[in-house]
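pipeline/complex-builder :: batch 7 item 3
reading input block
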Amino acid sequence: MTLIETQNLWKTYTMGAEKVHALSGVTLKIEKGEYVAIMGPSGSGKSTLMNLIGCLDTATQGEYILNGRAVSKMNDDELANIRNREIGFVFQTFNLLARATALHNVELPLIYNGSGSQDRVAKAQQALSRVELADRMLHKPSELSGGQRQRVAVARALVNDPSILLADEPTGNLDSKTSVEIMKLFDELHRQGNTIIVVTHERDIANHAHRVISILDGKIATDVIVPREQRNGVN
Amino acid sequence: MIAVSLLKIAIQALWANKLRTGLTLLGVIIGVTSVMTIISALEGMMGAVEAQLDRLGPSTFIATTMGGVITSDDQWHEMLKRKPIDIDYADDIEDGCELCEKVCPRSFNSASVKYGGEKLRDVFVMGSTYNLVDIVDFEVDHGRFHSREDDIYRRQVVFIGETVRETLFSGVDALGKSIRLDGKKYTVVGVAKKMGSMFGQDRDKYVVIPLSASLKQFGKPRRNSNFVIKARSVEELDEAMDQARIVLRSLRHVPYNKPDDFVLLTADAVLDQLNAVARIFRMGLVGISSISLVVGGIVVMDIMMVSVSERTREIGIRKSVGARQKHILLQFLFEALLTTLTGGLIGIVLGYIAAESLVSMIDMEIEPSMFGMIAGLSISTGIGVIFGIYPAMKAARLDPIKALSYE
């Protein structure tokens, strides 16, 4: 089943008199259950592509169909709704609310779809257990290690059962040991049937995925399946 | 459901920034307090004056030479030169004004009052016919007002105000005792209920004696006299006043082409004039005090703007997990409203306390006014919405990508 389908996506920024094309016609398809890495140097357009896939932004031109729905024509509120139900973000800088407990951070997506508070707490506890943080639920981010923070972010991304887990440099702020730990978690989540897209510039991280899409100058340069023997991790 | 969660988020955010919340509150409190002080004091004063005028019933009017709104010195001098109201006209008014049910002539003098070793100077002495008590709401504490017989037989009886009783008869029953009014002996027949003071004036330092006795002792009043007249009904008040006016004009020989040289006052007319003056006061004072309210509002807006830009990243995070514009808008608007409503409530209470101590300086008391409270609450809600909406909209419209990468 096709989860993501883009047709000739363009994203153009106007800087003064100049027009900058961050993306120049990206066409790709990602199936449900895939584990995809998007690679590219900085300025290549990979972050722009992630923002479009994550419905944080809309394309200047082109079509984007997510889970059968045309996202490219949606307004702000419809996009918010899609982000809430279809997408779980994991950011390089964790992006947790500093003053809130791990539990409240994980509850956040559920607040905005109107879940009742009992339901929210139950689901958030479950998600935190999945990332093995059941004993840290009432800790604030400042009381957690980097790896633990990122696991809270993963739990938050998972809590609403999204179609895609979208991770932007998820290990960028972590040491190598913790990075391995987090990537293991992704591998495990993929094994459980989640569709995962990881944006990274590190070959090591990308090699956890089954498919690597390289972006250069706003275009897809290569799109290859990683042979099983070259893959990192358990998959 | 979502609104409740957003309200909780707003409360937590305010709680987390106690100092900032406190300072914002202070701005609102100062603004609301200053406006509420003025509103409460004016309301209270008008209420007290109204209650005072209520003693004059709705179908009653007073015929006198001076009164109403005086707008110029000339008018003042003209009034001073007017012939006094001749109390002998009472019968003529009763005859000529068929809609006038009761006519009560009154004279006013001043005397010193003595009982035993106690003496009180400058006591207001009102001479009136017995029917005054049927027209004006004189509250008798104990004893009675003088009677028709007292009037006819020119008895030396006296009805005394609370201050007089307190000074002359502390610890002693006044009824039946003889006091001396400028040396003349009068028997106390009744004591009035306390009225308290107003605008620094003791309203209980008076005595009432029969008009006949007053005429005998003080002579015919040269200046200080008037009529209290009760019309048959409220509906017939205007007509009764017209009839009384015709009688008085003819008795006082006012040429047909000249204006009245006397005034007929009703409680309503007095109240209307007072209200007109109070309105100007209110507009002026509320206008001036509103400046601090605007300043309070600007404080709210300022702090909200800082708060929004400081929490840009938080807004980005919330948006990335699916918060819609209206969710962010409500969250910040709730913060503004919670602040201004709390500040408003405190301001209403402080304003009331301030107003109370203000009017107590002129010997008055006020009661909490419903109008004041509703005004205070709507003012503070208004400030919250007006000054909170722009920062909240700014927050709601933030671009999630820019907000997330905000340092």
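note: Chain B touches chain A at residues 1-2, 5-6, 9, 12, 16, 313-314, 316-327, 400-401, 404 (CB under 8 Å).
queue -> next item
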